[in-house]
């Protein structure tokens, strides 16, 4: 049994290294070449800078390449194992499929730990380093005055969040005015807005805006609200980071800061009014913090992809009875498409907290693990 386990581990590891290398190369070309090629053509990048940029992008693409590589390796190895009648010979000797694949499942769990380290710490830091390097080569400072998906805290007394921005047109805007204790005093929402610049003047114009006063518990609907941002002296000492590029610990800290600013007021008022204000603040907090929660759950959920892909890849490879590499890659790409469609769906719903988008991210893990477990049980029984 030990010899058989060693043989399988070697086969899976060799195939895994090959498939991860292929997927990493393809994803690197797709993610970095379109940006770096422009810098090369414009002679803004040196050879050393290009090599460093691609090196910093490797952990970022490994987030996707590692699970895809493990799935493809499971399909290819066990497809060949079944096609060559090796599996039949093993079963006839009294060895069950479950005992045969135990080290492979253990390997997938180890890869889950590696994926967690990459997803939650290494990849975000390398991504930020890559963006800094790219902006240094271009010779500009990254980001707009109000970049999207970032909690902007550069303006004293204000917390600003913009869902999407093209530099001028803004959507899903949330502006919280803070008191001297950094607690929310008023909250302004607007589905769309316009960022206007003229010389040193920068103004923000909100359309269909509504304003909630926390102390009085009343709503105001002014329609159009204008805010002169250039009149507010910024106190930025560090660069704002897109929440999609934050480490897990940075996301935790960001979540705690935002939640603290939505602390429940304890001012005088009737019990009913106080409860109403608490409910409004709680709902507002969900709207503002959901993008952070989605990113946190995405990083953790991604880390378990290798295990689910292994569980479903082994029985599919056995059933396919195929040695061809192209068949295994085609099957893996189809499964990856199904898996990542849930991830994309969850992230697209981050502006709708009532749909629980952070929980949608876990559906593919549970789905693949459940289906894979049933298929393995059936394959073990010879059904």
UniProtKB/TrEMBL annotation:
Q: Where are the transmembrane segments?
A: 12-30, 50-77, 97-118, 300-318, 330-349, 355-377
**According to its record, what are the GO cellular component terms?**
ATP-binding cassette (ABC) transporter complex
Q: Which key words are in the record?
A: Cell membrane, Membrane, Transmembrane, Transmembrane helix
Give the bilayer topology.
Multi-pass membrane protein
Subcellular localization(s) per the UniProt record: Cell membrane
Q: What is this protein called?
A: Permease YjgP/YjgQ family protein
Which Pfam families does the protein's record reference? LptF_LptG
GO biological process assignments: lipopolysaccharide transport
């Amino acid at each position: 049994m030990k010899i058989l386990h060693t043989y399988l581990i070697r086969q899976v590891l060799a195939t895994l290294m090959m498939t991860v290398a292929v997927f990493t190369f393809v994803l690197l070309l797709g993610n970095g070449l379109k940006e770096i090629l422009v810098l090369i053509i414009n002679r803004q990048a040196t050879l050393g800078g290009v090599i460093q940029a691609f090196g910093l992008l490797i952990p970022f693409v490994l987030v996707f390449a590692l699970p895809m590589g493990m799935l493809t390796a499971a399909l290819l190895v066990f497809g060949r194992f079944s096609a060559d009648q090796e599996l039949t010979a093993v079963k006839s000797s009294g060895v069950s499929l479950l005992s045969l694949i135990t080290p492979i499942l253990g390997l997938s769990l180890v890869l889950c730990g590696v994926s967690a380290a990459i997803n939650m710490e290494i990849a975000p830091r390398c991504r930020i380093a890559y963006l800094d390097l790219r902006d240094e080569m271009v010779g500009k400072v990254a980001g707009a005055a109000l970049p999207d998906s970032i909690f902007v805290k550069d303006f004293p007394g204000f917390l600003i969040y913009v869902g999407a921005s093209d530099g001028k047109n803004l959507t899903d805007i949330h502006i919280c005015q803070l008191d001297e204790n950094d607690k929310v005093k008023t909250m302004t929402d607007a589905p769309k807005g316009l960022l206007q610049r003229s010389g040193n003047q920068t103004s923000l114009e909100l359309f269909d805006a509504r304003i909630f006063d926390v102390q009085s518990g009343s709503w105001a609907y002014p329609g159009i609200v204008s805010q002169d941002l250039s009149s507010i002296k910024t106190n930025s000492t560090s660069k704002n980071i897109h929440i999609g590029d934050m480490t897990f610990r940075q996301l935790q800290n960001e979540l705690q800061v935002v939640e603290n600013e939505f602390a429940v007021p304890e001012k005088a008022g009737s019990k009913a009014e106080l409860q109403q204000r608490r409910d409004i603040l709680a709902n507002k907090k969900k709207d503002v913090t959901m993008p952070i929660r989605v990113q946190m759950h995405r990083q953790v959920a991604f880390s378990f992809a290798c295990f689910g892909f292994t569980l479903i890849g082994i029985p599919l490879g056995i059933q396919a009875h195929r040695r061809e590499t192209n068949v295994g890659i085609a099957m893996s790409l189809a499964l990856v498409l199904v898996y990542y469609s849930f991830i994309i769906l969850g992230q697209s719903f981050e502006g709708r907290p009532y749909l629980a988008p952070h929980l949608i991210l876990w559906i593919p893990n549970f789905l693949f693990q459940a289906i894979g477990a049933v298929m393995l049980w059936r394959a073990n029984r010879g059904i």
